[in-house]
Amino acid sequence: TFFFFTQLNGRFLGGKVRFSFMENPGYCSGSFDGLHHPSDDDDDDDEMVDIAGATLDFSTTDDVPPLSSGGYDEYSSSSRAGMNGGGPKKLVDLLEDPLPGVGTYEDFNTIDWVREKSKDRDRHREVPDTKTCFFLFCVLLLALNAPSSPPGALAGGIDIAAHWLTDLKGGVCLIGFWFNHEHCCWTSNETTFQERDRCPQWQSWAELIVGNSEGAFAYIVNYLMYIFWALLFAFLAVILVRAFAPYACGSGIPEIKTILSGFIIRGYLGKWTLITKTITLVLAVSSGLSLGKEGPLVHVACCCANILCHLFTKYRKNEAKRREVLSAAAAVGVSVAFGAPIGGVLFSLEEVSYYFPLKTLWRSFFAALVAAFTLRSINPFGNSRLVLFYVEFHAPWHLIELAPFILLGIFGGLWGALFIRANIAWCRRRKTTRLGHYPVIEVLVVAALTALIAYPNSYTRMSGSELISELFNDCSLLDSSQLCGYKQPVNVSETGVGNSLADRPAGEGLYTALWQLALALIFKMLITVITFGMKVPSGLFIPSMAVGAIAGRLLGVGMEQLAYYNHDWLIFRGWCSPGADCITPGLYAMVGAAACLGGVTRMTVSLVVIMFELTGGLEYIVPLMAATMTSKWVADAFGREGIYEAHIRLNGYPFLEAKEEFEHSSLAVDVMRPRRGDPALAVLTQDSMTVEEVETVVDSTHYSGFPVVVSQESQRLVGFVLRRDLLISIDNARKRQDGVVSTSQVVFTEHAPTQPPEAPPPLRLRGIMDLSPFTVTDHTPMDITVDIFRKLGLRQCLVTHNGRLLGIITKKDILKHMAQIANRDPDSILFN
Known about the structure:
The protein is mainly alpha-helical. About 50% of the residues lie in helices and about 5% in strands. A 3-stranded mixed beta sheet has the order 5-7-8. It has a 3-stranded mixed beta sheet with strand order 6-9-10. Strand 7 and strand 8 form a beta hairpin. The chain is elongated, with a radius of gyration of 31 Å. Keywords: Antiport, ATP-binding, CBS domain, Chloride, Endosome, Ion transport, Membrane, Nucleotide-binding, Repeat, Transmembrane, Transmembrane helix, Transport.
């Protein structure tokens, strides 16, 4: 909320440069023509396409009303009423009298960043200087209402509800069904130290149904009830997503990245998506599927921010300013997901945001702070701490341990590269085969398979967050976990310092736990590949961290036993004496979790900060940095794309990745349209075309905009006009301006040319024309052109030679050209 108020004192700098976008027909197959430009005769079913696991509706316009919306009709009808009253004829000048809808964007198009900034600068000139008092008042209101931060409150509710439903699969609390297992036994006086999780108030389903908790029959009853609840939760999740908000499926981060780069997906951040994703996220996590809630919380936070944007004209009418708010919301999402406000800001800066000015940085920081404070007030983790996995290791790490830490980084990089390739191959198969036609059946089959295999193993039966917390734990004298099943010391002198224990030989309990963890590692690696991308909310942070934490714990226990039995080796001599606490397996689990998450997402700085905020392990930054960088280097050797960039490319979004280098020595003339053999570029002349001729050009093409030239012979560039603005202006002029007919002359010049007395009045459209479209010469190197597109956020630029218009280069042209260079299918770029 603070973001909206502090923006009142902001100022935008820079020149007033405007440029627009035009679609190229050579890159659009016939099946997509109707999607970009639906006609009145098209059915709604023809305007749907499957993107990112959701069915997208091209006819949905939540944020900007269509041409036939109420506001536009009221504007037109009121104008007609004034003219029909017998008043004088009015020559409409769109420069002085802007129309509703002009300057807005159609669905699945890219915004004009420079025009939006220019609009905001013009708005600032109209804001009075007395706004400072209002700003201070707004800050005061913020201080009073900070605990009501919607993302923080939603995250706390999601955590509590998911914990309760997860425990419901195993049993129910007799004193109140709304209590989870921990809260049910919280005040019980009948628990024992060895069985601290068992109390008379909490009963398993076998105890309720057959009256016994022991034996094979009771085990089968609990097994079947676990599968029943898992299927029920998964079924409700996929049905609600399919019925109410198809956009609520998946992680949401690839689409958020694309939206922040300037792409428009109407409804993706709407209220129905927010409500549905909040409910189904709880159900999907509780079903036991190998997914997490942390990634989707970024989507939830962005939905909250987008809804709040509609309360302020400044953000509702300016797409660029709205994206600054969404960048802050992405930081809030990570802040409430992990309790890591600083890591959330860095995550938004490093991984998600496309345009991140300095003032957005500290506003994002404050927004993340407010959200974290709200989450801390709710205390969803029940440990009076903000962080999700608090650890307290008693032994420092040693320099020799960097070798196994780097080994974990290599494992994380290999796992990340393997996972990305396998998951993208599976998702592509889902999109191109009949598998994608049955999303409900797919979710139920995967949920049944997961529950069937997961229940016998206690480490796969528990939730992902609980598993990671167990693996991060440092064994002490009070621990009864199987992972702490060491042989007990003979005398007290063999114990370590404080509550820690010296390295001990592994017992039977630990060996059993290691076998179970090895099986859990294989299961998690396989099941996560087919789970991520299904049509339920699914995050990737927790599953990736679970894989790395299991591998790290296994390696840590191995190093611990190696040091115990071989403390006289050279590598252990001097710092690992008998009876000392040398190796901390929980630290290896933490480093492995960071390595695997880094290998999948390719995060570096933000990941390290999130991990030490997440665990409170500030002392272990160097091991985290070593493992994270190693995993990134290893994964980049197999492909530079992270999982989110891979899904963006799979879905054909027009995202120009800033991390990808362009090294080809091509020129602008090699990429522009039209090319040799293509039809001539459709253009409009500044004062020699009639309304009928302009409408003919518009109706005969599917371009999103048209260059305006002096004449067909000279081809001297004058400006650029958007198709949407042109249609709105002509339609409105026919209704508001007397005498405008098909033979009326369309004029883009400042002064209309002289016409015969009997000629109809001209239609002046200079107000909707971009007078300064961005241009490059035909010999401009493409590496420079690509940098211009990235840094200015261009949708297109016009190509000229000595002032004469030659062609146009769009963002889609560049993406297709880069795909061809990388030996990828250029037709995979679906949108503009």
